[in-house]
Amino acid sequence: MATKGNKAATSLGALLEIRGLSVEYRRHRQVIPAVRRVSLTIRPGETVGVVGESGCGKSTLALAVLRLIQETEGRIREGEIVFAGRSLLTSSEEELRQIRGKEISIIFQDPFSSLNPVLPVGDQVEEVLLEHTGQRNPHRVLEIFAKVQLPDPQRIYHAYPHQLSGGQRQRVMIAMAIITGPQLLIADEPTTALDVTIQREILELLFGLQRELKMAILLISHHVGIIAQYTQRVAVMYAGEIVEEGETDRVLQNPQHPYTRGLLDSLPRLRGEHLRRLPMIPGQPPEPLHLPTGCPFHPRCPVAVARCQTDPPYLAEVQGRQVSCWVAQGGEVRS
Amino acid sequence: MTTYLLRRLLYLIPTLWGITVLSWGLMQLAPGGPLDQMVALNVKVSPEVKVRLTRELGLDQPWYVQYGRWLKRLSRLDFGQSFKDGQPVLRKIATRLPATLLLNSLAIGVILLVAVPLGVYAAVRQGGWFDRLTTIWVFIGYSTPAFWLALLLMILLGLKLGWLPISRLTSLGFPGFPWWGKAWDLLRHLVLPVFVLAFTGLAGLSRYTRASMLEVIRQDYIRTARAKGLRESRVIIRHALRNALIPILTLLGFIVPDLIGGSVIVETIFAYPGMGRLSYEAIMTRDYFVVMGVVVISAFLTVLGNLLADLSYAYADPRIRYR
Which site among A156, B68, B178, B213 is 20 to 30 Å from A216 CA-CA? Predict the structure, then answer.
């Protein structure tokens, strides 16, 4: 599959490796940095989470991996994305097309707007097969519909998106994503638009399928609880940067970056102390056009020191994970 | 669906009735009457004869009485006779309608075949040189008066170069031509009027297609289609265009009457034997019954076009089901 000039090396055992990726959007002749120097590695079969507030760049990261950012909207400014030994940034449009939907699939947040309203859903799923294998195969579609636990696959096959419930639509999206047996599935807020009662079902289905199909999942969510339960490693994003990254248990049980700590503190706890006012992180995330100097988090940071206002921090190992914070990194603060 | 259709058809009755009342009233407000030309051009008709004719034809009655009489005859599908030559109005229309339908369906066909691809391509390459060029070109087409363009083309292609005939639908020896000669002759006569109608009608539809495509291309399901690894041509045609055409169907309902109205000017300039010139002549000579016949039939075709547009809308968009 990999042809001229896009062969690239990944670190040992990595399926997807993102290195120093920066993405910017253009709007009204202004350049808006959305993702800044992000590096992330996913190994085969692994689940990696990306967590952060809306607008922190996590969805942009997902779109950039599939090279789905349209030229009219923005561009990848720098960095490298290597998938299974191929550089996605130097791949031709035709090579990318062979990867999209076949080796890397994506599930979007809103299953209603993500399905074409004028085509039957069975047709939309079958289209993936048609494009990547050259033939129609309705039986395979019905099989996949059964696998994602859609009731009455025959009826759903001919249904239009508006005739399905939100949960059913997301199951159709999952069916569409896994029908080719991809190595990597990107799930961009897969349950955010759904009722709370259905969220769990969809997640259980997704991760059950992961075990069966042995695919890696990049799970993007603003929901720390979901990240904690389903991912092995996590990257915490703030203002387009990764501020803390490491094994999920380690990061969430003993957060080192003040932003990660703030995210965790603002979660309600069901045991122990009742009726406490949830602490919030004061202020708003910075606008990408007016990023503060130094550490982007310093205006909201409870432990910021003088240096945070001037010097941008970088990721360095602290207690077995990567943290981008002068205070957490210790020593430098006093010097 | 059947009840919806029945209801829509019932609604047509008051609409058509309203149109006839308004047209009748407007026509009566215009100075002069059907007899004026006859009298003015004929010295033998004395004022006494005119008064007698006026009474005999019922033209001395108030407008609502005349209208009532006309409506009563219409209810028996009797459209009356022309004041000019005594021919039944329906026959006059029947001889003219095919030519108009031919001209307009050709023009609509050309407009659709050119405007939709133009709009799609401009939208896909938004801001590119093709998009800019069509923007300018479409602006020119939109603001060019049909009669002016028609005259220029007649002078250039018809008189200076002598390539195309400049008037009527057929040449003098037409009845004696073999079938292919007839077809060729018709085609040559149709080129200019179809071109003028299409050129001035293109602009709106191509802009509309472009806007509709731009709107659709930003939708999430287009991103999904790309994420599935579909070819861009498939994304644009199967996923984007199919959705973008839905609002355009409604626009087609408005284009049909537009072309009937527009063809009054074009048909008159090209001396084209269609409904447009018939109504122009009838209005000029105050040939009341002919005018009303044309109004009723045009109005009927127009509302029918709108109904068909609405129905195809429901057919194209599965989210809409009329009750």
Answer: A156
